[in-house]
Every structure is written in C-alpha cells, then in structure tokens.
Specification:
eight-stranded parallel beta sheet, globular, binds alpha-D-glucopyranose, single chain, Oligo-1,6-glucosidase, domain 2, alpha/beta, five-stranded antiparallel beta sheet, 22 strands, Immunoglobulin-like, binds calcium ion
C-alpha cells in the first residue's frame, strides 16, 4: 500500500454559512473563514474541505449551484476567495472544494435555456421525459420527499430531480455536459486548489430507460435508489473525469456515495483504477434508521457500529482507502448520536475523537466537533431552515396527519440543522458568530460550549484533538497499521490492535456510562506506553485488566 499525503492528512470541513460572519448580516462568509485560519492552524489540521461557496439561490444552502465559476454574493467575491487560498497556502493548509455535478440549480443558465424548448442546444444537459398515462415518467422519489419528477408546462415534459425541485439532475449521458464539467474543474484546479469532495457522485449514472423501481425493501434511500446509485456507467465517468480533468494535478478526491458497499468501494478507490482516492460511505450513519428510512428512529447500538467499521477496516485493508467521519453538515452531532452529550459530554467527545483518529483511513473533523458541540432542540418548526427537514415535516404532519410531537422528536435526533447551528466562538450574544441576527439560531448552550473557553482550558476537547492530530503525525502506525478487534463480543467496550513495522498499538474505548473491565488477551505483551487518554491514567499501570471509567479511551504503544 503506497504512502500518500492525503492518507496522512487530517481534514476539517467548513460549512461556510455557519462558520464565522465578518460583516454582521448573520451569514458566515469567506472573510470570516480567513479570520479563523490561525485557530485552525493551531488545531493542527492539514486540509480544509469547503462546502459550496458558488453562486446559488440557496434552496439547499449552496448545493444548488447557479454559476460554478463565481462566488456566492453573501459569501464574498472571487478576490476574497483567492485571498483565502493564498492565506491557507501560506500557512501550509490545503483546500479542497465541493464539486456538485449530479445536479445544478434550476437558475443555472444551462437549465434556463434547457427548459425553453425541446430543440434548445442545452435541452440534453438535463433529463427530460414525457409523462406516462398523464402522470410522472416513473415512480422514483426525491431524497427530499415527493416525486423525483417535476412537470414543466413550456414543453409539456417532466425533468428529473433526485433532490429538490430546484435541483434538476444533469444528464451525464451527454458528452458535451461532461466536457463542461471537466473544463469547470480545471478552472478551479488551475487556480491552485488541492482537490475535490464530490457531492453524491455515485448518482450521476442512471439505469437505462429509467424504469419504475420495485419498492425496495429496507433501503435507506428514496425508492428508485437501486436505479440511480452506482449506475451502469459510473466507473466509466469517474475514469474519464480522472483522465480529462484530474490527472496532471497532485490533488486528492473524495466521493460522497450513499448506498455504496465495501466491494464497490474497492472498485472506486483501488489506486490502479484511477477513479477517486476515497469515498464517504453511509453504512454506519444508517444503523439508527428503521425500515421507514432516516426518520424512522432506532437505537444506535455500539456492537452494530463496531461490526460495520470492522467490515470496512478489513475490507479496504489491502486495496483502496477509507475516509473516517462521525458527523458532517448532513448528520447529527456525534456526541449526541454515538455517546453522551450531557454529564459525560467532554469525555464522550474525546473518546469518539480517539476512535476516529486511531482507525486506518483519513479522518474528517466537522466544524465544532473539536469543541464537543451538540444537537439542538428548537421548540418551533419555524426555527428550522433545512429543506429536507421542512419538506419531510410538511409531507408527514400537514400531508399525512402524522403526530407533530413524534415528527419533532425525529428532527431533534436526525435533522440536518443539528449540525448547522453557528459555531460557538465565545460566550457573547449569538456565541460571537455574528453581530447581527444569525440565519439559523445558535445552540443555547454556547455559554458553556465555545472556542474561547476551550482554548483557555488545557483539558478541553479542543486541546485533546490538537494532541491526537499531533500524535498521528509522529506515529505512522496510526495511519498505516493493520486493524484487529480485541474482545469482539463485548457490549460496551470497543477495543482493537493496530500493527505496523513490528510495532503494536492498543486502543480501548468504553462506549458506555458504566465501568466495564477491559481484558488483554493472554498472548499480548502487557507493558505499554500510554500515548493518550481522556482521563488521568497511570502510565506505568499493568493493563492486563483495566476497569474503564464512563466513556474512557486509552491508547497504548506496546513495548
Ligand atoms: C449531498 C450533500 C447535501 C445535499 C445533497 C444534494 O448529500 O452533502 O448537503 O443536500 O447532496 O446536493
Ligand atoms: Ca456575512
């Protein structure tokens, strides 16, 4: 397995709308990001993945792009963006941009043209079909509720939108569209960026003929998922994209791929196939969803989490590469979801961080994770902004008459706005994020949980991340070591051994508020050097048997 900078890097995701507002309009912006680069440098990260900053009417907060070559007015100007890149490179930080090319905005010039007439030169940039017996061309559903088709009167046809009605899907069958995308990618690559995060990139190839979907059983995605995820030409498209846009640049790529399994991920990430460097898979973030999908709540069981991670760790051990994440702008906050965001919030945040940074793969930190930020509960649905949440609420409560409280509960647990509340920089009004009214309310816990407090407290989650990131730089075993479970059947302890070039590392994680006992298998060396722990621990302790404290994490290098 080759050594690569992007395997050794720690990546930090910025959701710009919620990061830092520089001009008091309540919306995070590029100048705000620049003002916090020193903070990120101190944290020790290497790369920033910037969620979309392109021109957009913001139906889906920038994931609906109306101009791929310009910056959203609310975020600043191209000059601001160029300064951001320069200030980052000056500090040794790399920048990867979001590439959203499964769909554009319906306000993109291509779509404005496309919908004008059936013979418009841009018609085939999108996916248009006649209706079937007076209704939609097929039964596919949008990931954001309702049919995936919208009728357009002008030409008496429907267009496909796997996301919102303002996000028409681009037609990748059209070679002209593909060339436009590659040109646009080179436009950014030539400006000196260091890679792309590719939005739902395994949706770009749809099954031939767009047939009706059988109601898929137990799938976490919209009906029709099997027909547009990992479709027939997806590998051809990614290889072509590599050849025509990416080759020749020393950049990294990560493809967001809902519904991808290990075998497919190997094909996407095997080095010689030249598709993408790694994928964001979704298996572990679907474990707490029932047959009804993401809003159908189920408990998150540690054993299921461990089974899933183990499958991926072993599956991509020899070939391909894992990305590691526990939350992002689409997922709830990790402490609230996988551990305890109340009495053991700090211990939990550090334990999960230890987990993330001691697995094989590239770790991604989502903004605020380094502060142990938590989910939020707004009393009123009117305080929510996310289109996925609002569409679902409307469909279930207003459309189907489902119970308001039950739906709100699912929003508290799963809603995307949990992750999108503004970053809590200090304990002043609105957490220091803005001097105006924030576009989405700040989590009321900003008085205790904020960056100012965290930086001043040597025991904070922030400083623990800093230490972990530093350790990963000094210990290649954390990046490249093999992975094997210890105590594989325990209900509360998740433990594993990493091995690399004659060295052994042991990781003990207590995923509970109890005090279970870790037992080292008899054939292990019992003397270790304590690398990091989220509690005070005696570095000389005999670790054959260790009673772990609530949410305790320890990492040892064996002697
Ligand atoms: C991806 C993005 C999400 C967006 C969707 C449609 O899943 O991460 O935020 O809503 O694609 O672009
Ligand atoms: Ca602003």
């Amino acid at each position: 397995m080759s050594e690569q900078w992007w395997k050794e890097a720690v990546i930090y995701q910025i959701y710009p709308r919620s990061f830092m507002d520089s001009n008091g309009d309540g919306i995070g912006d590029i100048k705000g990001i620049i003002s916090k680069l020193d903070y990120l440098k101190e944290l020790g990260i290497d790369v920033i993945w910037l969620s979309p900053v392109y021109q957009s009417p913001n139906d889906d907060n920038g994931y609906d792009i109306s101009d791929y070559r310009n910056i959203m007015n609310e975020f600043g100007t191209m000059t601001d963006w160029e300064r951001l890149l320069e200030e980052m490179h000056k500090r040794g930080l790399k920048l990867i941009m979001d590439l959203v090319v499964n769909h554009s905005s319906d306000e993109h010039a291509w779509f404005v043209e496309s919908r004008k007439s059936k013979d418009n030169p841009y018609r085939d940039y999108y996916i248009w079909r006649d209706g079937k017996d007076g209704s939609e061309p097929n039964n596919w559903e949008s990931c954001f509720s309702g049919s995936a088709w919208k009728y357009d009167e002008t030409t008496d046809q429907y267009f496909l939108h796997l996301f919102s009605q303002k996000q028409p899907d681009l037609n990748w069958e059209n070679p002209k569209l593909r060339e436009e995308v590659y040109d646009m990618m080179k436009f950014w690559l030539d400006k000196g960026i260091d890679g792309f995060r590719m939005d739902v990139i395994n949706f770009i190839s749809k099954v031939n003929g767009l047939p009706d979907a059988e109601q898929p059983d137990g799938r976490q995605y919209a009906p029709g998922g099997d027909y547009f995820m990992n479709g027939p030409k997806i590998h051809d498209y990614l290889q072509e994209m590599h050849e025509k846009a990416l080759s020749g640049y020393d950049v990294m790529t990560v493809g967001e791929m809902p519904g991808v399994n290990v075998e497919e991920a190997k094909l996407y990430t095997a080095e010689e196939r030249k598709e993408v460097n790694m994928v964001f898979q979704f298996e572990h973030v679907d474990l707490d969803a029932g047959p009804g999908g993401k809003w159908d709540l189920r408990p998150m069981k540690m054993s299921a989490l461990r089974d899933s991670f183990t499958k991926w760790q072993k599956g991509l051990e020899q070939e391909g590469w894992n990305s590691l994440y526990l939350n992002n702008h689409d997922q709830p906050r990790m402490v609230s979801r996988f551990a305890n965001d109340k009495e053991y919030r700090v211990e939990s945040a550090k334990m999960l961080a230890t987990f993330l940074h001691t697995l094989k793969g590239t770790p991604y930190i989502y903004q605020g994770e380094e502060l142990g930020m938590t989910n939020v509960k707004f009393d009123s649905i009117d305080d929510y902004q996310d289109i996925e949440t609002l569409n679902m609420y409307r469909e279930k409560v207003i459309g189907n008459g489902e119970d308001h409280d039950k739906v709100m509960e699912s929003i508290y647990v799963k809603g995307r706005d949990n992750a999108r509340t503004p970053i809590q920089w200090d304990d002043t009004e609105h957490g220091g994020f803005t001097t105006g009214e924030p576009w989405l309310k700040v989590n009321p816990n900003y008085k205790e949980i904020n960056a100012k407090q965290a930086m001043a407290d040597p025991d904070s989650v922030f400083h623990y991340y800093r230490k972990l990131i530093g350790l990963r730089k000094e210990n290649p075993i954390m990046v490249y070591g093999s992975y094997d479970l210890i105590m594989p059947d325990h209900d509360q302890i998740y433990a594993y051994r990493r091995q690399y070039e004659g060295q052994t590392m042991i990781v003990m994680l207590n995923f509970s508020g109890d005090t279970p006992v870790f037992k080292l298998p008899a054939d292990f060396e019992s003397k270790g050097e304590l690398l990091i722990s989220n509690y005070d621990a005696n570095a000389e302790e005999d670790i054959r048997e260790v009673e772990l404290r609530p949410y305790e994490a320890r990492v040892y290098i064996m002697k």
